[in-house]
Structure formats: C-alpha cells, structure tokens
C-alpha cells in the first residue's frame, strides 16, 4: 500500500518534468506556479509514505537503503518548498523534479527494500543522528541543483547564446547567494548530525565514521574556500555538484555495506 | 449599439499627420454632437485613435473633423482606418498586446491604454460598452504576455546591456559603473543603467572636460584618464567607447586586478569600434565581455523571437474576439430597451 503512495508521488514529479519539457519544446519556458504545486503534491505523497512506514516500523523510516533514498528525496523536496519561494527560485522546481524522480525510481526498481527480520529497537539519538544527517543531504542536494542552474546561466552569459531558459533563470548573484545559504544550512545540520552520532550509545563502524567526517571536511573546505576567496563562484558551483555526487556515493556505500548498523 | 474605432498610426500616417489630428479641447463636445454615446481618445506618439459607441453610424470624416487641431487649408484627406464591432475589438486587442506597435511586444502601450481608459471612465466619457471592450482588451494583453514570449528580451543595444547587467547582478543599485569614453552610445547606456537604480558612476575620458560634462549630466564623478585602470578592482560594470586604435584592456593587464575580487563578477560592455577590450578577456573567470556586435545580435534575436510569437498571440486574440462578439450580441439584445446614453467626454494621453 505504502509503495503506491510513492508511485503517485513519483508521477507528480514526472508531471512537473513533462510540463517543463513541453514548454521548452514550444519555445516557451515559464515555470510559474505549476512546478511548485506539482512538487508540493509529490511532497505530500512522500510524507504520507514516510508516515505510514514510520507507523509500521514504530520509528523513523530509515532502516534500509530504500527508505534512506526516499528520505533524501523527501528532504530535497522539503528544502525546495522552503527555499524556492523564499529566494524566488521557482525555476528550481524544474531542476529539483528530475533529481527526485531519479532517486525515487531507483528506490522503486532496485531490489533494496529489504525489511529487517526483527523489529529494530528504538534509539532516539541514533534516529536523530541519521534523520538530521539526511535532511542535511537535502540541503546539499539543493545546493547542487542551484550549482547546476548557476553553471547553465554562466555558460549562456559567457557564450552569449541566450536561450529561452536564460530569461527565467535567476541572476547569477542571487543563485550564488542561494548556494552559499544552502551550503551553510546543510553544513550546520550535518555537523549537528555528526555530533549527535557520538551519543548513540552503539559502536559505529570506522568506515562509516571516516566517510561521514570526509563529507563534513569536503563541505567545510568549500565554505572555507569561498570565505578565503580561493574559489571563484563558478568553481564553488561545480564543487557543489562534485560534493553532492561524492556524498551520495558515500551514503550509498555506508547504507549498503553497513545496513545492520542503520537504525 | 455600434462599436467602432477610427484612427491613424505609424503604419499609415507620418508624425506630421498624426500631430494634425491629435485632438483639440473641443473634440469631446464635437464627438457628442456627431452622435457618439461613448468615446475615448487614445493618443500616443505612434497613434491617434478614437474608440466610440453610437446608435447611428458616425462617418469617418466627421470623426476626422472632431480630431483636427486646426482647419486644414489644403483639404488634406488623411488615410484614417476604421474598424467596426468585432474588427474594432480585434484591433484594440492587437494594440494593447503590442502586436500593432512599432517594436512588436512593447508593453508601454498597455499602460497608455489603461491610463486613457481610467481617465475616460472618471470623466464619464466611457460607459458600459467601452468598459467591456477595454476590460477585455486588458485581459487579452495580460494573457498574451503570460502565455507567449512576445515581450521577451530587450530589443535595443542599451536595454540589452541593462538586462544582461540585471541577469548578472540582480540589483543594480549597489553596482559601481565606470564609463570609459564619453560618447553618445555610452551616455545612452549609462542613462539606461541609471534608470534602473545605478548610483555610483565614474566617467573617464582623454578630454577631462568631456568626462566632467558627462559626469555632471549623469550625476557621477570624473576620473582622470590615467587612473581608469586602477578602478577595475572596484567596479562591477565597465562601459568603454573610446576611439583608441589599440585595445586598452588586455587579459594580461586585467587578470592581476581580478585576484582580489574573485567572488564579484565584472561585466564589460565594449561599444567601441575598433574594440577597446581584447576578446580573450572573456575567458577570465567572472568576466562577461560583450561588444557591440554581440549586443546587437541579442537584440535581433529577441526581436526575431517576438515575431515568432505573433501567431500564438493572434490565436489568443481571435479566441477572445469570438467570445467578445457573442457577448456584445447578447448585450445588444438586452439593451434594446435601454435608452440611457452616458455623457461623452474626451481624454488625451501623451506619448
């Protein structure tokens, strides 16, 4: 039953993508409210899915890779709904939807929804640690999307070939400001998740700890590099994409190899 | 009730003719005497049009006589066009949507039409028929703007430069601008930037007097020509239009100046021929260099895009014309018994 909710949610995000593609093919690209509402509806179904799963499990629904991926997709949509309107980045929906669809389709089709044989005991610190870290991933994902938008806009300005999308993308300085804010949000939440990991009361595998600290260092380096002006905005945008790709790979590695340690 | 429009525009009359028939203080009374129950004058720099509703037909010559500013000793017969009922609605919808404008898709005409209507309504010159017509026209214009790309992009070099600046910096109020060379085109571009809120302007020219004159005109400050290169570390926008035969700014010269401003973009508008800035400067991180050709090419691209959207806009208009026609037919039946005629006044809009 809960998987149907996820399928409906994925369809909502697919509708947002189809709407964008159709508009672009028609030479018109107006994100308007459609993408926002499609993503919003998809988010409601995601929340319903996670809520039902959580109720069945009696804990935060991040007990296997399937649930972890859906939780990250939910965090991405959540940050978009918070950040998009606040920074007038409505077009971000057109970029957010493909990422969410990719994550959810992978979760739905890959054989990764393996339930635990025994009901896992509740551990509030462990659940807090894992969930807050995944919400931070949502912020990093959106920083990655803003990075893609920045590079698209920057490329058009450099090459002087302005396509329809150029007129609907936010200005470079606004995009860069959004990237930095999302990085700070993600970094702060991730730090909170990392620190709370020391209070879980269970031994965590070293690989997991090293990888988690590695991701923390990576984003810390991007922010420090930006603060010390080591990197131009274009490099920061590119690093957001590289950083999130690396973080996602590490997340998959952590969850896949140490499923027994995941709450 | 008969709805009609009589007018002259840039399509069929030169400015002299349009001036001669731009209306006079007696136009309102004259239109009422001629039998118009409702009338509105839309007078802009590109058109002079009367939109009116009358029970009986009012001839084009009579309308022309109402509009003429002074008696015409040469018996000049201007090429007035006339549209009735649905054709009148179609024409107004095209006008407010910017399809009939000199620059396709320009939006100023919508504001002018709104002001003309508001003033006519306030004075009682526009009644229920013109109310329906104009309210529908404003709806059509809005739909055309939101559902097509008819207003997309800028179509002049100055406005393209300003649009690009806004796409880079968002808010231009905090931008620092250096103008190198006090030519006419750079002055126009600077004025366009000032209109969008730029306040920190510096002008540098070989002739100190010309630099000071332009600085005074745009409320900026003059910078000695020998000092302009040092400004590149501080400024956000550089507009160059000197008559130098060799490039004034090269990649090697600019790169060291950018090290301290790595997180701030630099937008260079080079409108000089021959160019003042070496083309490879564009390869530097955070530098966006546009010369006169690239600005013109974007303006032409925008114009072409607007033209491509005309068919889509016409489709929206024709749907509304059909609906409006039905509405008017129903309205005419209902009002057959009504005999109320609102008073006629006249309102003129400057261009």
Structure description:
- The complex is a heterodimer of chains A (263) and B (351).
- Chain A is mostly helical and 263 residues long.
- Chain A has one domain.
- Chain A is built from eight helices and no strands.
- The two termini of chain A are 23 Å apart.
- The mean pLDDT of chain A is 84.
- Chain B is an alpha/beta fold and 351 residues long.
- In chain B, the strands form two sheets. In chain B, strands 7-6-5-8-9-10 form a six-stranded parallel sheet. In chain B, strands 2-3-1-4 form a four-stranded antiparallel sheet.
- Mean pLDDT of chain B is 86; it is low at 337-351.
- Chain B folds into two domains: 2-151 and 309-334, Glutamyl-tRNA reductase, N-terminal domain (Beta Polymerase, domain 2, 2-Layer Sandwich); 157-302, NAD(P)-binding Rossmann-like Domain (Rossmann fold, 3-Layer(aba) Sandwich).
- Chain B contains twelve helices and ten strands.
- Classes of the chains: A mainly alpha (263), B alpha/beta (351).
- Chain A binds chain B through residues 27-28, 30, 32, 153, 157-158, 160, 162, 164, 166-167, 169-174, 176, 226, 229, 231-235, and chain B through 146-149, 152-153, 164, 166-170, 260, 262-263, 265, 282, 285-286, 288, 290, 294, 297-298, 301, 305, 308-309.
- Which topology of the largest domain in chain B does CATH recognise? Beta Polymerase, domain 2
Oligomer: heterodimer
- Summed up, the helix count of chain A is 8
Strand content of chain B: 15-25%
The backbone outline of chain A, from C-alpha atoms, is: globular
The largest sheet of chain A is:
none
Task: Report Rg of chain B.
Answer: 26 Å
Count of helix runs of chain B: 12
CATH architecture of the largest domain in chain B: 2-Layer Sandwich
What Rg of chain A do the Cα atoms give?
Answer: 19 Å
Helix content range of the residues of chain B, please? 40-55%
Report how far the terminal alpha carbons of chain A are from each other.
23 Å
* Largest sheet, strands/sense/barrel of chain B: 6 strands, parallel
Number of DSSP strand runs of chain B: 10
The average pLDDT value of chain A, as a whole number, equals 84
| Measured distance between first and last alpha carbons of chain B | 30 Å
Low-confidence stretches of chain B: 337-351
Alpha-beta classification of chain A: mainly alpha
Biggest sheet, spatial arrangement of strands of chain B: 7-6-5-8-9-10
